[in-house]
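Kindly review both lines to help learners:
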Amino acid sequence: MKKSILFLVAAMSFLTAAAQGSDETLMTINGKAVSAGEFLYIYEKNNQAGALDPKTMDEYLEMFINFKLKVAEAEAQGIDTTEAFKKELKGYRAQATPKYMQDDAAMDSIIALSWARIAKDRRAAHIAIQCPANADSAAQADALAKINEAYERVTIGQLKVEKKKVKGKWKTIEKRLPVEPFDKVARELSTDPNVQETGGELGWITPFRYVYSLEEAVYNTEVGAISKPFRTQYGWHIVKVEEEQDHKEVKARHIMKMVPRGDGNLDSLDAAKLAEIEQIASIVTPENFAEVAKTESEDRGSSVRGGDLGWFGLGMMVKPFEEAAFSIKAGEISKPIRSQYGWHIIYKEDERGIQPLDSMRSQIQRQVMRDERSQEVEKSFIRKTRAEYKLPETMNDAAVKAYADAHLESKYPELRNLVQEYHDGILLFEVSLREVWDKAAKDTAGLENFFKANKKKYTWEKPHYKGYLIQAKDKSSLKAAKAIIKNANPDSIQSYIAQRINCDSVTYIKVQHGLWELGKNSAVDKYGFKAKNAEFTPNEALPIVECVGKKLKAPEAWNDEKGKVTTDYQDFLEAAWIKRLREKYPVEIKDAVWQRIKK
């Protein structure tokens, strides 16, 4: 509910944002100055085209004064000094500040670069020498030596040094061996656990799929070339960029029959699953593919969606599946294909290239913020903050960020406005809760007195029936229920019926208490209002129906119109409260300024 008051504040235009307008004092409330710019900001914002309830400036002035008086009262009560208030305001501010604590230009640059890379799929292989960052110096040196050896062997050839006796003297002979195939060297030196199978092949690479330093190497190396050794958190690497092509994505569905790996009867099981998928392939069409997938596919993740895999690019699926999906045309269904997971048939629904930058910007930004490259944005922000505020180089990064955070409101008016809105919204909620809402909810005597004083105001177009609708299994149960209704406290009736009548697994009686308008309940219409045209057929299990209560032409108690009376009583309390506030806190309007801004 506390959050909702912030939206209430915004909707009612009771924002305390400093407008980009006149700094002249328009009024003082309890000695505190309020600028003309603040008032104009609120007025203009809420009288834009399409406003639901446009107000004149004079009307807004009165509403604004009332709001400011409530905030002044909240501050006078010390609500703004409580730990609960400070914590809540701090939490709201923390949600609003992150976008101001980054370098937008650096973020835009990284987003644009990432999008440009997404536009080009690159196929690459790598050689990796595992070496964690916390390895000792000997292990670090050994890893570096091995990656340098690998780089040498695949680029210029390994240097072989021999000693030979020439004319009776030993001489050192250096000989450069031929350049070796990348996959051969990978299998001999790389510590990638899959290297013997793949020869170092990584497949197709797109941004955000690998660690940033590897992505950097892949996209900063010419096609056909090999990168220089580079470090990641896992160790040392070199990559060979083998191919580049324009980015493509496929939208597809599939039906799968799983073949568990390592099964003792793999051959017979594989043949059985192939027969199943071939039978499905013989009947499936683009039109029925989704329905067949729901019942036949053993891929639980996609079968519930009719086999839908959504959009995917190169490198996102296992190789046989990927090759089949990208080789067929949109609208076609593939032949059965085998992957390490089982047998598949694929229906290719569509194919597309890269989407426009504007449509991908928010998605890329989210990926950047979860990625190493977000550190580049932060470094740029810290660097620019140091320069902007002339902060000493001795100040660490955390201190620089704290300094920037402390000065955000003075730098960004829109943030200052928003935080002030949160501030006043929280105060408005708490003080209104104390002075109006809680009082109205708990003051039953006040509600009753208010209703009696304004009884003529509350009328109904149609009569109502107030009482109980009873449905009974037999006459003795009906009699017992009526006795309970007559003698028991209304709040205890249902409890007594459960204990004394419906005391076993059989329901003997059902009692509903309510206030029913004629025409809203057919049973009450027939047995309470005795309406001649009422049609109601009793439940066979509870065939005896009777109403106990009375017909009313108008409300007789405040809770007969609880919602309306409570709302009106709240308005009554608020009007009296505002009257007290206007007597308590002096309001002075600078007439000359007021007349000037009205023109």
The first strand starts at residue 25 and ends at 29.
